[in-house]
Amino acid sequence: MANQTQKNFHFTVDDKHNRTYDEYYRDPKQLQMASAGLGLMIIAVGLYFAWSEGFKPGGIYALVAFGMVGLVFIAIAAVLPKKVGTPQTVYDTYPLAPAVIADIDDETIWIMALVDAATDPGNGERRGLALRAVTALPGHKKTVGERVPVTAVPGRRAVLKNRDHWAEMTLLPIAWGTPDKSVIQKASHAVPEGRWRKLKQLQPKFDEVKNTKTKLLIVDGKR
C-alpha cells in the first residue's frame, strides 16, 4: 500500500498498445516460452532414452525421471503469468512516481524515478532513486529531462540487512499502457510538483545510481 507521499493512478490499459511496448511483460513471456520449450526438450530426451533401451525398466526409469523434471519446467511456464499479474492489475495496484529521462545511450533510454522504497509504508518513507533502461517511450520526447510518469513496482526484499526498504524497484512508464497523450499528461499532473522538483535536484546522481547493483539508491540518509 502507498503512504501519503504516493498515490495510484488509474486508467484503462490499451491491450494492443501494451503488448507492443511493455518491456516489463516482454521478459517474462520470453522466459515462459524458454521454460516450456526446455521442459518439452527434457521430456523428449527421456523418451529417446526409453526408446533406445527398448522401453525396458532402465529406460522407463529414465523416462519417469526426465518426465518429472520436464513437467516442473512446464509448470513454471504456466505459473509465470499469474505471478506477474495482468498489466491492468499492476498499474492499478502500485503507486505513481515521477521519473525523467536521465541519459540516452544510442538506442537505450535511461529513466530515473524518485520512489518510496519502504517495505512497510507505515514506518515512514524510504526515499530512493530507481533506474531502468528502456528502448521505447511512446508519447514522449526523446530528450534528457523529459518527464515520464511511471508506476513503481517493488521487487525482491533484502535477506539479511536493510529490510526496511526494497532491494530493487521496477519502473513501468504510463506510456506503455496507453497511446493517449492526455492520459500521460494527467498522470504527470497527478504527481505533486514538489516531487518533480526534488527529482530534478537529484538528477546529478544518475551515475551513482547506475553503478549500484540493483539500480536503486536510497537517498533519505536513514540507516
From TrEMBL:
Annotated keywords: Membrane, Transmembrane, Transmembrane helix
Record Pfam families: DUF3239
Keyword Metal-binding: no
Keyword Transport among UniProt keywords: no
Xref: InterPro entries: DUF3239 (IPR021632), DUF3239_dom_sf (IPR023124)
Superkingdom of origin organism: Bacteria
Transmembrane segments: 33-52, 58-80
Protein name from the UniProt record: DUF3239 domain-containing protein
